[in-house]
Design brief:
- About 25% of the residues lie in helices and about 25% in strands.
- The chain contains eight helices and 16 strands.
- By secondary structure, it is α+β, with helices and mostly antiparallel strands.
- The chain is globular, with a radius of gyration of 22 Å.
- Helix 3 crosses helix 8 and helix 6 crosses helix 7.
- Strand 2 and strand 3 form a beta hairpin.
- The strands form three sheets. Strands 1, 4, 6, 7, 9 and 11 form a six-stranded antiparallel sheet that branches.
């Protein structure tokens, strides 16, 4: 009898331990493409990926580090109690401490650290905080994923730290003020950014061929690269809507010096259709919205729209998924760095696209 009772006792202890671990208070919330490590450390990878926590008292410090295959600085945006506190430089080298001071009299404060740059600009390691942590609760909201290129990433939109004609490309990034995060804050939804500068559906801005890290080749990798040593993305987010804005780089002429074949509508449509099939495998209940580009104009814009209509038509007989929709941004002559939209122009794009997405969510 004693021998028979041992497995039951072990089982009871295992269940009790599991129940205790599931009810532990949550002190950090992670959002976006984030690699959560031991001891609540986390690598912020994708545009506007973030870590949030609640703390008591009016001050604390956070420790951050720029990490990449080559040493360089990076940027985060700090938001305290829902207020934008600005873009902060995380210098290259050892981890740095940043002091946070709250001026309001509320008893509990919320700090969110957003990655201002995109996945291929290196990563930011959240090492920890001195804060007196309080429980933080994840509020259930509807969700949107934004898949795209430099425009979606908020690339080159913010010269407030370093002027456009100085520094490096990533010095002018501010993903917090990309159109997707702006929309999501405005309509109160959670969001995921899966975007890379220069990326396309069948070819990139200045790369084409089987080795090019196009979006279909990197999307399933958490770090949005072809590096097989990096973990796969787990697709736990499961958005109600997936917005796809890809094509600006497929249509581009590249740098004008590297050999570039004429745009192929057939390759674009074929790769896009296969990419959508991949998305459906991972997100079977998502509503897909395909967008044009405000930076593709003239005859290219006509071809672009025709391609999107052909892609949509490929799935019209598919009754197992929601009908694919198309949204058209108005043409824009961008005034940000290196020919990209600036923050004010991202707000214009958000004002155009936001009501469409909000109405779509309200229908569900």
């Amino acid at each position: 009898m004693f021998i028979k009772k041992i497995p039951l006792l072990i089982l009871f202890l295992l269940i009790s331990t599991l129940s205790i671990s599931q009810t532990q208070p949550q002190t950090f919330l992670y959002a976006g493409r984030v690699d959560v490590l031991k001891d609540n450390k986390a690598v912020l990878i994708g545009t506007a990926s973030s870590v949030s926590f609640n703390f008591s008292g009016n001050k604390c410090a956070v420790t951050l580090q720029s990490i990449d295959s080559w040493e360089h600085h990076n940027y985060v945006v700090l938001e305290l109690d829902g207020q934008y506190m600005g873009k902060v430089t995380v210098e290259k080298g050892p981890a740095q401490s940043f002091n946070i001071k709250a001026t309001s009299n509320q008893k509990v404060h919320t700090l969110t650290i957003y990655k201002a740059t995109e996945a291929t600009m290196g990563n930011v390691l959240f090492v920890g905080t001195t804060a007196k942590l309080m429980t933080i609760t994840s509020v259930k909201k509807k969700k949107i994923e934004y898949i795209g290129d430099s425009i979606t990433s908020g690339a080159a939109n913010d010269p407030s730290t370093i002027p456009c004609d100085q520094g490096q490309y990533f010095d002018h990034h501010n993903g917090y003020y990309a159109y997707g995060p702006i929309i999501s804050r405005n309509i109160d939804v959670d969001y995921l950014m899966s975007s890379v500068s220069g990326i396309g559906i069948y070819r990139n801005w200045n790369e084409e061929g089987p080795e090019a890290p196009i979006m279909p080749a990197v999307y399933e990798n958490l770090y949005l690269t072809k590096d097989a040593s990096k973990p796969k993305y787990d697709f736990a987010f499961q958005p109600e809507i997936i917005s796809i804005a890809l094509g600006t780089n497929d249509f581009s002429n590249g740098d004008g010096t590297k050999e570039r074949s004429p745009f192929s509508p057939e390759k674009y449509v074929s790769n896009y259709v296969n990419f959508i099939k991949m998305l459906y495998q991972h997100n079977p209940n998502a509503q897909l919205v395909l967008t044009n580009s405000p930076m593709v104009n003239g005859e290219k814009a006509v071809i672009f729209e025709d391609c999107l209509n052909k892609i949509k038509a490929e799935f019209e007989a598919d009754k197992s998924h929601k009908p694919i929709l198309i949204f058209k941004f108005k043409p824009m002559t961008p005034s940000g760095c290196s020919g990209h939209p600036n923050i004010e122009e991202h707000k214009i794009m958000a004002a155009e696209y936001g009501p469409f997405l909000k109405n779509l969510l309200n229908e569900k």
